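Dear colleague,

Following up on yesterday's call, I've attached the two folding results inline so they're easy to grep. Please treat them as preliminary; we haven't cross-checked anything against experimental data yet. The first protein's sequence and structure tokens come first.
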Amino acid sequence: MQRAYIRLKETACMGTGLLNRIIVPIANADDTKATCDALRPHLDDSVELVNILYVIEQTEGYMDPTSPEALKQEARNWFKSAETTLDAADTFETELRAGTDIVAEIVASAIEHDATAIVFKPRQSSGLLSRLFSRNLKDRLISESPCPVISLPETDEDELTEVSK
């Protein structure tokens, strides 16, 4: 199936319930802050779930340089930052997953939470986890996602961009 990039007005996204139950993958502290800052203006009282997701990428056959416990503690700090920024206590959840396939873990989370969308902010930095939204991985997420994938705008004046479905 061919997928097109569609520009959506903020009101169109909110009016259709597209942001009712969202999965928000994060990659690091800077990404968490940037993503939550960009997401906050688009949340309203109709939102039922904001699930902040961090996936610890496990590499088959190699020792990870950082201990799993250190990664979990780091993620907990990012989750606290997200909760403070979003101020969405009733609808806010966090999820820590681990796996060799980041996209598969995001998709599994979306299915388990009956998500209406996966929402991300394009990452500007380089690094292992920032590969998540490189062209190949973004294309995989778009093709495998059970729900729309939405790119958050760079500024408050920009529109949300639905990149799938």
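Below is the second protein, in the same order (sequence, then structure):
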Amino acid sequence: MRTFLALLTAAALAFAGCGKETEEGGPDAGANGNGAPANGAPANGAVDNGMADNGLGDDTTRNGRDESKDVFTLTLPEGATDITAGKTVEVTINVNRKGEFKDAVTVSLQPPQGVQVEPKEITVQPGVDEATFQVSALPGTPAGERTVQVQGEGAAGGRPSEGSFKIMIEKAEEGYDTPGTNDNPLPRNNEAGTDN
């Protein structure tokens, strides 16, 4: 029943496009279009009313936030992703390009002990908005919650966008073989009551 609920929740999140968003990364991350600090204070000490004029007659900021910054964020899975020891699941990370940011973003995962990811990094090209990884809990990995670190780096440099998501490793069911371990072998023919 827990697996069914986990699948139902994952489908609902995928459908709704929900997830947690990382902080901004990219060439303009942490500064407004004038090179001001991220706290919204102008670099030259002038008073900023939050409605800067870009010289074209239209405002590029709203409430002190520059809408034309070259930045990106990543959308990570929200909540814990369930994985049975010895099994693999797909995890998708979305790249959200904002303002004039159009560059490729390299997304890399750093798994904890007992977890593998393939590939370890994916370069998400312009025009593509997601990277899908295969995340595996190694056979024999103890059950429990783990954290996978995520980093996105824009091709043009600047600050990386970083975050993490949780995975919940579950013990393999009794009576099933977990490849690569002797903890839970399949019964041999003579043990299963067959004649050979």
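For the second protein, one point worth flagging: Residues 2-29+70-170 form a domain with the Immunoglobulin-like fold (CATH 2.60.40.10).

Best wishes,
A.L.
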